[in-house]
Amino acid sequence: MTNTPNAFFEIIDKVSMLRQFNLFTDLTEEELQDLARSTSIKAVGKHRYIYRSGDESEYLYVLINGTIKIGNTSNDGKEVIKTILHPTALFGESGLGSLKERKSFAKAIDSDVRLMQIHVDGFKELMKSNFDFNLKVVENLGKKIHKIESRLESLVFNDARTRIVEFIKENANNFGRKVGYEMLLKHSLTQQDIANFTGTSRQTVTSVLNDLRNSNQIYFKRKSILIRDLKSLA
Asked: In whole angstroms, how far apart are CA 224 and each of 23, 88, 187, 190, 231?
C-alpha cells in the first residue's frame, strides 16, 4: 500500500508526457491513464540497441529525445539504414500486425535517447475501442509507407550525388534552423551513417561533401552542416 501514491503520480507523469505527442492529444483522461499503465520510460545509451532483428514484437515506442536509426544488417555485416527517426516518432509497430518477431533493428545514435515503451496489447485495446485513434494510427503508418516508397524511387532513379544532396535538403527542411539567409543543420550522424542511408559509400559521401564545400554551397563540421542557399543546393 505504501507504493500506491508513487504509482499514482507515476501514471500522472506518463499521462502528461503522452499529451505532448500529437498521436495521443484527442484521447480522454481515462484512455490516457489506461495507456499509461502499459507504458514505461526507457533511456538508451549511444550505439545501444532498442531491439534487434529476431526479437519479439511485444512493444512499440514513441521517441521522446535523441535520434535513432532503423535498419538491417547483411550477412557480411554491412548495415543498411531504412529510416532515421527524431522525437515524437512512433516506431516498432510490427507487433500490431501478425509479425511476432522483428525484421529490423532499432539503434540509438545519440547518447541521450529516451523513449516511451508501450505494450502492444494495451495499444491494440485502445485502437479497438477508439475509431478516431485507430484511424490516426493507420494514417501515421500510411505516411511512413509513402516515405519508404519515395526513398526506393530515389535509390533506383537518382545517382549517388543526388541522393546525398536530397538527404541534406530533407533533413535541413525538417530539422534545420535558419541563421540569417543560411540554414544550419545539427545532427548526430557519421558519414558512414549517411552512406548507409543513401545507399552509397563513406568515400562517396566525403567526396560529395568536400565538393559542395569547395563550391561554397555548404560548410560542414563533424556534427553540423551550414547550407548557404537551400534552394540552390545541388
From this structure: 30, 22, 6, 11, 18
6, 10, 61: which is closest to 36 by C-alpha? 10
List the domains of the chain with CATH numbers. 4-156 (2.60.120.10), 159-227 (1.10.10.10)
The pLDDT score that the predictor gives to residue 2 is 43
Angle at 93 between CA 89 and CA 71, to 5 degrees: 75
Please answer whether residues 70 and 50 qualify as being in contact, where contact means their C-beta atoms are separated by less than 8 angstroms. Answer: no
Q: What is the pLDDT of residues 31-73, one digit of tens each?
A: 999 999 999 999 999 999 999 999 999 999 999 999 999 999 9
CB 165 within 8 A of CB 200: no
Distances (CA, A) of 37 to 25, 32, 128: 17, 9, 17
Chain centroid to CA 225: 20
Secondary structure percentages of the chain, helix, strand, coil, to 5:
45, 25, 30
Residue 68's contacts (CB-CB under 8 Å, 6 or more residues apart) are: 44, 50, 84, 85, 91, 106, 107, 108, 109, 113
Contact (Cβ atoms closer than 8 angstroms) between residue 178 and residue 214: no
